[in-house]
Records
---
Amino acid sequence: MINTGRSRNSVLLAHRFLSTGGFWRGGTNGTMSRTINNVNPFKLKFIPKTVPAAADSVSPDSQRPGKKPFKFIVSNQSKSSKASKSPKWSSYAFPSRETIKSHEEAIKKQNKAIDEQIAAAVSKNDCSCTEPPKKRKRKLRPRKALITLSPKAIKHLRALLAQPEPKLIRVSARNRGCSGLTYDLQY
C-alpha cells in the first residue's frame, strides 16, 4: 500500500513555497523559517523568452495553452552593484594642446634644474677624482746584513786569491718573503 498522505503534504508544501515568493513559512512543526536566497548566493530569475509572432505559430510550445517558454538567468550580483554600473561606455578624451604644452614646459624646467645641480656639484668637487689613484708606497725597512764573515773565513778567502791562478767567489743574496735571505755561492 502506497502512502499518499506524505506525498500530498510535500506537494502542498512546495505549492506554499512557490506561492509565498521563496519563503518557508514553517514546516510541519513550524521550525523552518529561511529564504532560499539566504541559502544560496546565486539569485535565480525566470524570464519568458521573447519570440517573434511568426515563430509562435510554428513552435510546438506555443500551441499548448498556458505554457510559455522561459529562459533561465543566474546572477550573483546584488541590486546595489547593478545600480552602480551604467550600461554606457565611458568617454575619454585626449588632453588638450594647452595641457600638453604646459606639461612639456614643466619637464623642461625640471631638466634644467637637474642640469644646474649637476654642474654645481661638479664645480665644487676637485678634479682629483678623474686622475688615476696613486700606487701605495712600499714601506721601507732597514736592510739586513747580507753576510757576516768570521776571521777564519777571511783567511781562507785570502789564501784562495794568493794562488798562481786565483779563484774568485761570487756571493749573491735575495729576499725571500719575510723569512729572510737566500744565498747563492759560485766559485
Note: The two ends are 137 Å apart (CA to CA).
---
Amino acid sequence: MMRATAALVLTFSATCFGAHVAIAGFHQPLHVVPRNRKPIVSSRQAVRLHSSVRSVASPPAPPLNVLERFTKSVNTGAETVSNYVEVGWNKAVSRAAVIGGSTVHQLAHPWVVPTVTAMLAFGVLASYHYKLYKQETSGVSTWRSTQANTRVEWAKHVRDTENWIYATQTLRNAITANAFLATTVLSLLTVITGKIVPMIKDGVGRRTITLQFVFVSFSMLLSAYEFLQSARLMTHAGFMFPVTKNSTKVDSIMRKSQNGQWLGLRWLYLSLGFLSWLVGGGMVFLLSALLLTSFFRQIDRVPSIIDEDTVHVII
C-alpha cells in the first residue's frame, strides 16, 4: 500500500516537473539522486516514467504555415534544378572534350593531309582541262585545234600538188617520232614497275602505293596507246594519198592522228605528276600539279606568227 502510494506521488511529481521543464525551456537543473540512496521505484516503473516524461517534455512541432511551405518548396526545387544543370554541364563539357579530342586526333592522323593535298592536285588538273575543253567547244583556238587544222591543210596541199614523195617522207618522220615516244614510255613503265612491285609485296603502305602505281601505269599506257594510234593513222594516210585523190578521208585521218599525238604527250606529262605523287607524297603532287598547269598554259596557247613564213612553236 505504501509502495503504490509512493509511486502515485512520484508520477504526479514527474508530470508536473516535465510540464515545468517544457514551459521554462530547460532552465532549471535536474536533481540527481545520490548513489547510496535506493530508488523508490523499480527499473520497469522507471522506464515507464521516463517515457511519459519524454512525451510530455517533447511536444509535437507546430505545423508550418503556407508561406513557409512555399519557401521550402522553392528552395528544394531550386537546389534540384541546380544539381541537374551542374550534372548536365559536366556531361556536355566531357562530351565536347571527347569530340574535340577525336577531331584533333583525326586531323593529326598521318593520312589526312596527303589525301587532301592529292585531291586538291586532281582538282587543279581536272579544272584546267575542263576549262580548255570549254574553250575549244566554244570556238576559241588552241594549240591542238590549230595543229589539227594545219594537218588538214597539209593533206589538201599534198593532194593538189601530188607531191607523194614529200608526203611519204613527212609521214615517215612523224611515224618514227610516235613509235620512239611509245617505246620510251613503255620502257620507263617497265623500269618503274620493277622498282614498285617489291615495295608492294613488302606490305609497307601497300594500298597507297598500289593506288599511286595504278595512276602512273594507267597514264603511261594511255600515252603509249595514243602514240601508237597516231602512227597507225599516219600509215593508213600514206597508203591512201595516191589512191583516193578526190576523197577527204585522208584529211579526217590526219586530224585524228594529230589528236592522238597530242593526247599521247598530254598523258605523258600527267604521268610525271602521278610519278611525283608516288615518290614524294601529296604535297609534292600538289606542287607538281601547279607547275604542270602553268606549263600547260604555255604550250596550249595558239602559236604566234612572227612573219609570213615563220611560226613560233612552243614545245
Note: Residues 75 and 81 are 10 Å apart (CA to CA).
---
Amino acid sequence: MKVSVIVPVYNMEITVSRCLDSIVGQDYKDFEVILINDGSNDKSPEICKDYVRRYGNIRYFSRENKGLPYTIKEGLDHSISDFVTFVDSDDYVEPNLLSTLVKAQKEVNADIVQSGIAYIGVDGSLKSEFKMKNSLITDKSKIFHAYFIEKSVNNTMASALFRKKLFEDIPFSQDLLSIDIQVMPLVLTKFSVFRQIEDVLYNAVQYPNSVSRGARIDKMYEDRKKRNILLESFFSQHAPELGDYMLYRKSMDSLFLYDKIRTSGDDIEENILKKIKEECRQCFRTYYPKLLNSNLYIQFDKKDKIKLKLFSISPQLYICIMGLYEKWMNRNTNY
C-alpha cells in the first residue's frame, strides 16, 4: 500500500533536513514524499532540491506564499496514493511510523489511524506526550465526544494516516490560523472506522518559527472569532447534542487570549490590547455562567475548570497565578 507523506515547508532551513532524514529512513518503503515550498525566502528550497536529487521517491513543488491550508490542499492534489500522512518540516518521526500505521490500518480496514505524539523542546528534551489507548471507534457521536469533550483524540493532522478521499470536498481557506481546527472535524464526519494506537511515533518540536505558530495577538483574536463561527455551524449540522461545547470554548478563549497578552512581545497599540481584554471579559461574563448550568460541564477537564473558576474570581488573579506557576515550572525544569 503506497502512502504519500506531505511536508509543507516555509523558512525551515534549520530543521527540514532532520525532518526529511527521519522520513527517508522509514523501515516501510512503499511511500512518496511531497514537499510543498510555500514561498520560503531562506535556504529551505535548496535543501529540498538536494533531497530530490538524492532520493527517487521525493517530489518538490514551489509557489508564492499562500499559507498552510493551501499548501496542504496542493499536497493532496499531487498525491498519487490512497493514503496520506502529514509531517511539519520542523518535526521528525520515528523510523517505524509508516510501517506501524499501515499495519494498524490493514488489520481493520481503517479510514484513519492515529498514534501518540511526543512534544520535544528545541534542546531535544521531552516536554510531554499525548498518549492514547488502543481503541476502535465506528460511531460518529462517540468520535465527536472524544474529540471535543474528552480530548482523547488528538486534534492535529500529524501522527495519523488518512484515507485520502476523506479530504474530498473539504474547503481549505486561507482565513484561519489553525487548519487542525478547521479541517479535522469535517474529516471526522466522513470516516467509518477510526483506530487509535498507543505507540508514540511523532515528535513535535516546540520551535518558535513553526508554520503553525507565531501569530500576533490581534490576529489570534480575529482568528478565534472566525473559528468559533465555523464550529457553531459544525455542531448545528453534525453534533447538535454537543452544542454547549461552544460555551466552554468561548470561555476558554477568554483565558487563552488574556494569557497571551501577558506573555506576548507584540508591538500592538495599547488601545487595541485594551479593547481585546475588555471583549474577553465581556465574552466570559456572557458564556461562563451558562457553561456552569450545562450538562456537559462536569465532563470537561478538571484543570480547565480550575482555571475558569480563578478567572471568574478575578482576571488579574488568574494572570498572577499563571505567571507564578510558569516560573515554578521553569525553575524545576532547569534543575
Note: Residues 209-213 have pLDDT under 50 and may be disordered.
---
Amino acid sequence: MLRTLGISIRQAYRLKAKYRHGGAKAIAHGNRGRKPVHTLADSLKQRVMSLYQNRYSGSNATHFQQLLAEHENIRLSVSSVRRILIQGRLRPRRIRRRPKAHRPRPRKPQAGMLWQIDASPFAWLEDRGPSLTLHAIIDDATGELVAAAFRPTETLEGYVTVMIDALRRKGIPLSLYSDQHSIFHPPKGKLTLEQELAGQKQALSTFGQAIADLGITHIEALSP
C-alpha cells in the first residue's frame, strides 16, 4: 500500500499523527491554494507575448527563447516560452525537418557506360551579354565534360549538336541519362503502325528515336 502511495513508513506515521491531531485538513499540503514559486508573473507573460507579436513574430519557440535571452535579458526555458505562446494563442512556427538526403548513386566503373545529358540556363556571360543555356554531356564514370554548346534556350537542336559532337569524340555510349523534358519524354500518345510493328511499347520523341536507333539505352530521371 505504501509503495502505491509513494511514501515511506516514517511519512505514513507522520501523516497518521497529523490526522489524529488536526483531522483531514491537517494532511493537506501547506502550499495548497498558493501559487507555486516557479509560476511566471502575468506581467512577464504579457511582455513575452508582446515581444513575439511585435518584434519576433514567425520565429519558432527555440529561436525565440534565444532571442529573449540575448536581446531582452529574459531567461526562460524553451518549454516555458512555448507554453506562454500557446496560452496566448500565438502558435510558434514549427521547425521543418530537412528531408533525409538520398544516398548518392555509385558512379559507373568504366567510361562510356553512362552519359548524363542536361541543359542549364544561367547568366554565363554575366553583364557582358544575354542569358544563355548550356547544353552538356558528362561521362558518369569520369566526370569528364564530353561535349557542350550554348544556345539561347533549351532546344532539341542544342541537344542534337552536343550529342553528335560527343559521338564523334568518344563513340556510342551504352546508356544516356536525362530528365523528363518533352524533348526526351514526349506526352503520352498513340504509337504509329511502324512503331507497333517494331515492337515499341511507348511513343518516342525525335531525340528518343534517334538514340534508340543507335542502340543506346535511355534512362530517365524519376523527377521531371
Note: The first helix runs from residue 2 to 5.
